[in-house]
Fold this protein.
Amino acid sequence: MLQIAGLDVRYGPIRALRGVSIEVGRGEFVGIVGPNGAGKSTLLLSIVGMVRPQSGRIEHDGTALMGRPPEEIVRRGIALVPEGREIFGELTVEENLRLGTTIRKDRRAAEADVERMMKEFPILGERRRGQAGKLSGGEQQQLAIARAMLGDPKLLLLDEPSLGLAPLITKQVYQVLKRLNEAGVTILVVEQNPKRIMKAATRLYVLRNGQLAFSGPPEALERAEDLDRAYFGFNEKARPLP
Amino acid sequence: MTAFLQVLADAASQGSLYALSALGIGLIFGIMRLVNFAHGEFIMIGAYMLMLSAAPYVPLAILATLAAVILLALLTERIAFRPVRRANPTTLLVTSFAVSFFLQYLFVLIEGARPKGFDFLSSLAEPFVIGEVRVPKLNIVTIGITLVLLAALAFFLKRTHFGIQMRAAALNFRMARLLGVKANRIIAVAFAMSGVLAAVVSVLYVAARGELSPVMGLQLALVGFVSTVIGGMGSLLGAVVGGFLVGALTVALQASLPLELRPFREAFVFAIVIVVLLARPRGLFRGREARERV
């Protein structure tokens, strides 16, 4: 469904991604973990066209995505729930959800889906006329996911959905993602904290210093030292800084 | 009491023109953090369009003015502002000055620098008498049109899907685009709307003053800009309130200053503006000028 090959991204002198290649198949639940500054967000932003890579390839169902604007990429069925959720705090919950339907052609079906979403996430229904900025962190995360889903995406990208959430809330968020995945949505999640994602994902990538350090099933990283090695590069010769 | 009501009526009509000018500038600033000083030239060119198309049939002339200014606003966006949209705010500001001066001197070249008299809808100058207050019909028309436009804009922004997209884009353009909001279309529509606001000011201004000149837009753009700053950059409500406030201030000073000080009215207006900003540096309504652009 999504193929990325040899992706290079620079911010001025800083090389955020170096030759990163990943693949996401239809119906998969893929996780990308790595420490702060590993390039995880950059990777997701490159996919949706918010960051322009220097070289490499990003293909979605055989179509090259690079160079296309975000508003076109989202219309291909790729939605991003960005880091920090980025809900429109001064708009109402309902307006936020409506915005999720921007790319839908069938307005009536879209309106019905907004109503359905407010039943699926009852707290959003209760607060529909309230300012979205007044929701708690967990509620905002639900709103961000619901809003992304209203565009009817086939591939859902999430940037640190557990950031700033209590463990119990994180668990709920992952239950929602699991349900969506079972309903046929392909999911690619980026997390700094690998704990939750290792349980949920069917396949895992570890990104470190802008490069892939591991790819495979999460079970391969079950032993703590294996994870540490992939995650932090322990037990490896010191690598010169770029 | 009568004197007070008289001043109030004058202030409301002067404030209407300022509020409409401020709204045109505030709308573009809210969406793309661009202070469009060329807005004054949109108004000026609208006025010339009105004169040049002045058919005996007034509605046709007004329609031609509207169409011309909308087209001008769209062209300006496409040719001058779109290529520098991602540049820093200073570049945008300088570009808007360049466009402003270019259009101004273009009209000096075509029409000459001297003001021209133009008698338009002068029948509206007749007063409408309520008790002892005499309000020119034009003032009532001005206030009425302003209220209708404000209501229409509020309805558009609050109730239509495109309006919600526009508000979202003003709050966080990056996220709006991630949801599929089309940047080019939103910005073009914002410019078209600022064109409508400018054209309306052209018509009302010419009807009130009976003359036009290539520099006529300068003061309106400046006052519009100051009004948006007072109201709080990025807040449309603030722009409207700021416009009415500056209008009211101007009229109140005109009525209350001793005769020998009246020529310096503007100095007093702007001194009060400075005091307001010293007390509330971010404007009366908190703006969002710190947010990133497209």
